[in-house]
Amino acid sequence: MTRTSPARIVLYVISALVLVYLILPVLIIAPISFSSARFLTFPPPSFSLRWYQQYFANPAWMQATRVTLTVAFFTVLIATPCGVAAAYAISQSKLRIMRMFHMALLLPLVVPIIITAVGIFFVYAKVGLVATMPGLVLANVMLGLPYVVISVLAGLQSFDPAQEMVARSLGMNRLRSFFAVTLPQIKSSVVAGGIFAFISAMDETIVALFISGGQYQPLTKRMFTALRDEIDPTIAAISTLMTAASFMLVLLASTRGKRSG
Amino acid sequence: MTITVPDSSQKHQRREHALMLALVSPALLVILALIVLPVGWLAWQSIYHDGFTLENYRRVFTEDIYWRSFALTFEISLAVTVIALLLGYPVAYLANAVPKGWSILILSLVVLPFWTSVLVRAYAWLALLQRTGVINQFLRYLDVISEPLALVHNTFGTVVATVHILLPFMVLPLYATMQKIPGDLMQAGASLGASPSLTFFRVFLPLSLPGVLAGCTMVFVLCLGFYITPELLGGGRTVMVSMLVSRNVELYNQFGAASAVAVVLLLSVLLIFFAVSRFISLDRVLGQK
What we know:
The structure holds two protein chains of two kinds.
Chain A: H1 6-33, H2 50-57, H3 59-92, H4 97-105, H5 107-110, H6 113-127, H7 133-157, H8 162-169, H9 174-203, H10 206-211, H11 219-229, H12 233-260
Chain B: H1 10-47, H2 55-62, H3 64-97, H4 100-111, H5 118-129, H6 134-141, H7 155-179, H8 183-191, H9 196-207, H10 209-224, H11 228-233, H12 241-250, H13 255-287
Helix pairs in contact in B: 1-13, 2-3, 2-13, 3-4, 3-7, 3-10, 5-7, 7-10, 8-9, 10-13, 12-13
């Protein structure tokens, strides 16, 4: 089976090239962000933190960072309980309509995001939610819900509902038995779902392009506008920080997931 | 399951149903208000403006700009899908063929870019592909070229970055399908005297087709609605449908036209999902035999 035929070697080479293609862009940003040059030069010139200084010293970037973190925080705060409640109902209820509701909750993943964005913009324009914090949070709650629902449903699949019934037959009410028996067992998938909702809110760009404005513009919108105009290495510094944050969160989510087995 | 619930009367069951509906309703409300209503609004706006009108659709289907943009979007999506399949298939195949530790490494490398923001990756491709970018400088350093190549702000750059972003959506379903192909089928083919390439083309490839279809559908559909990469890497010349929508809203205030374009795009996506869902289930039945 493991003979190294010419076909195998071709397979190895192609796969290696594709993998390089996949990770090269992720790896290229950090060196740019630590370079002293305004334009990229090869081989890279000296090490410098000036783009990080520019980022942290710029009030507009700092304001945008605050907006992003606030939006992501409230998104998790709202999307996680809503998603957990919905996933619980979908997995426990025998109502037939729940299957339809399940599909509906996955809609944000199916509808092209540009369509969602324009639609939300029109609705927000009517009700005065354009360029507001609540508007931004609500849109991100909607976009984050599928991640929570998918993650928690997967967690509930290995959970035996009979355990909760035992707790209730012993006199606990529904709410207490959920918090005492069910939640501890699905905790890791709840945390993972929340983390994915956070990352989704942090990275969200297209909806923000349409509905955010004024002082409530998240990082991604400012980055997008800056990228349209010119290549500013400050964006490399921000991108490096965002990527590092994402990876740390994903790592956290996956170790959490493993602990539950 | 012989645990008796304290009260299993009809009244209890009604209360149970009510509770479940109450639990699902906050999430459902968010979905209704922020995706069903907005999309419905778009559909309404596309046919109603001081009375019913099909003017917007007439424009989408007859005017050159719209027509060309739809054609270009489908062409690019098709090209991206084919390239992603050609690049993704060997990787999925290798991940399936090597020992567990290696396949975990390969799959992690595939999924790693997945968790970087699309915007960050668009920036990275700009840095790599622009005239003063890494690749042009490297090639000039090696004296391969004397003039920088135009690698970005055109369709080429858009396709390179889009394939990069969508490749995981191709590799993962391919790998999942290949995992289900029993290894002894290949051995059986070999023991009957078939060459490795013959067993691959006659046994393995046909059995992996459901994964091919699933991956291609995902990539194609996602590409149809792509916005960030064509906007940032297309250089204004590659006007995909998503850009048509955003320009009609942001630059021209043509809300009716934007809505009609969005509706046509959404219907194309739903139609593709619907058409493919019939085939994949059919293929899955065949694959499980």
